Amino acid sequence: MPTLNRSLIIACVFFALCFILATSLNAHLYAGWLLMMFFVSLAFFLRRYEMLKGYSFTVMILAAVSLAMYYPQYFVSVGEVKLSILIVPLMQLIMFGMGTGLSIDDFLAVVKMPKGVIAGVGCHYLIMPLVAFLITRLFSFHDEVAAGIILIGSCPNGLASNVMTYLARANLALSVTLTAISTFISPLVTPLFMQLFAGEYVHIDFWAMVWDITKIVILPVCAGLVFNRFFHGRSRLLDNIMPAISMIGIGLIIVVITAAGRDSLLVVGGYLILAVIIHNISGYFFGYWSARMLRMEEKDCRTIAIEVGLQNAGLGSSLALAMGKLSTVGLAPAIFAPVMNITGSSLALWWRGRPLQNAEESIDSPNADEPITSLRNHE
């Protein structure tokens, strides 16, 4: 075993034991830092292995979340400025980055594969809101926390779905198209399902939510599309830095929400994590088998499963902020983000070990390379 790997393993074990000792002694002032260092060491260890490095970003998020849970005062505000004001601009920047990775051809693909697009979008917007509604009936959450579960279920596809589809040897062209289409219809579909399923929990201003989604998602994506149309291939620097900016942005959003909702998380955290895991895995399961029932090809079934199970958690967080309920409605989206990255990466790598007969075509085709250039690190 290389010396660096051995050192990282020793560091992981050391910080884990120190965290357990500090917690047992009620030395919580230090326990948070020790837990953070454990996750950081683990993240660096995971990056040493090609098959595992996809999890390193999520583990780093857990490191930051650990600090937010133990020391929330540092992540709520700086002086008199609340850090929550960063959420919407960061989300707009992330969606601009998504737009730069899309082109008009991604929307024209609807004509080439209408069955896959209709099935994918239909499954996504039927399965996830309905499962979310059933979960709120299964668990007795506070009304605003329950509304947050329905909110994440009503959001469009997550950006990470394109990366997971690529890893799973599935239909990348269909994945990119589904992400684009679900995103552009979200200003109407998301408020509709929120009004139908979450209206009994919180007040939903339909048209206000339409405008919030438009300014947070649609306008930045359109700006990115325009940028891609006129500056495609001319800005290598932007292509290189946007994935990193997106990852940092997602991390900051999750940390700020965790700090803001820390007290609520201490009360419902365990049950909410369980509910989110059930929600996420149900998306994969019902998405896959719905596609199978429609007699779709295996690679398309995998694609739809991933597209259904992964949500745009950043949008959910931004909408929770716009509703003025970041610390309650925003909890489910904040938890959903790291959970879906762990489960999505695991599912994609499991499928990758079971390649399709035409796997080489799905990976090496011209359609596979272009979107991955700008989207593969958004996970």
UniProtKB/TrEMBL annotation:
It is found in: Membrane. GO terms for cellular component: membrane. The chain crosses the membrane at residues 7-24, 30-47, 54-71, 83-104, 116-139, 145-165, 172-194, 206-228, 240-260, 266-289. It is a multi-pass membrane protein. Keywords: Membrane, Transmembrane, Transmembrane helix. It comes from the Bacteria. The keyword Cell wall biogenesis/degradation does not apply. It holds the Pfam family SBF. PANTHER family: P3 PROTEIN-RELATED (PTHR10361:SF28), SODIUM-BILE ACID COTRANSPORTER (PTHR10361). This is Bile acid:sodium symporter family protein.
